[in-house]
Specification:
By secondary structure, the protein is an alpha+beta fold. The protein is built from 4 helices and 8 strands. The protein has helices spanning about 1-40, 50-60, 140-155, 180-205, and strands spanning about 60-70, 75, 90-95, 100-110, 110-125, 130-135, 160, 165-170.
């Protein structure tokens, strides 16, 4: 009986360790993908860097924070573990030599706040779109990938702030979202997220 119990316990331990290893590997892969996409959204050329080098670059240049629905900066424990559905929005600050270069944020649909579709960034003056890294799915065809790369590349440098009317310029087109093209979908998600972050960005546009 004791031998049987030892055998069962040993088998359970093997299964537990295998599952834990699988989960750890998945978490590491997710962290590496996330860092790559955020750096890419800031316009940094990281495609040929090894994962370890990208990780070091991320730690050197990117500060992670969060804001609330009113655009107020949250730090440390205030933001830790909180979700977009709770009115907390992740914020990434790209710095060079102590100077803010750009602000980044995840691209999330309001209807499915747990799914991240990519990342985007705006310049330090918060009036210009710096870059967009739309997430590529393994199921995407070569044609669709090319379509995404071409469209997001064309968004770089787009003005997102209407100085005359003091409002965010919409990048998307109006229409029935059920029939949106890929380009319209990306632009609409961008518009939604720019509106979420606008209370924070407005702080930097005052008197400008």
């Amino acid at each position: 009986m004791q031998n049987l119990l030892r055998f069962i316990f040993g088998g359970l331990m093997v299964l537990f360790l295998a599952f834990w290893g699988y989960q750890s590997a998945q978490s590491a892969d997710f962290a590496r993908t996330r860092q790559y996409e955020i750096l890419k959204a800031f316009g940094l050329d990281v495609a040929n860097l090894k994962a370890a080098d990208r990780g070091r670059l991320f730690k050197q240049k990117i500060v992670e924070a969060a804001i609330d629905a009113k655009g107020e900066l949250m730090r440390g424990r205030q933001a830790r573990g909180r979700r977009v559905s709770q009115g907390v929005y992740p914020l990434y600050v790209y710095r060079e030599n102590g100077r803010v270069i750009a602000y980044g944020f995840p691209l999330i649909k309001s209807a499915s706040p747990r799914i991240i579709y990519g990342y985007a960034s705006v310049s330090a003056d918060t009036k210009t779109l710096r870059g967009v890294a739309w997430r590529i799915s393994p199921k995407d065809t070569a044609q669709r990938k090319e379509q995404i790369w071409k469209f997001t590349a064309g968004l770089r440098g787009k003005k997102i702030w209407d100085t005359r009317n003091k409002t965010v310029k919409p990048l998307g087109e109006t229409g029935n979202r059920d029939n949106f093209s890929l380009e319209q979908t990306i632009a609409a998600v961008l518009d939604d997220n720019l509106r979420h972050y606008d209370p924070f960005f407005r702080k930097f546009r005052r008197n400008k």
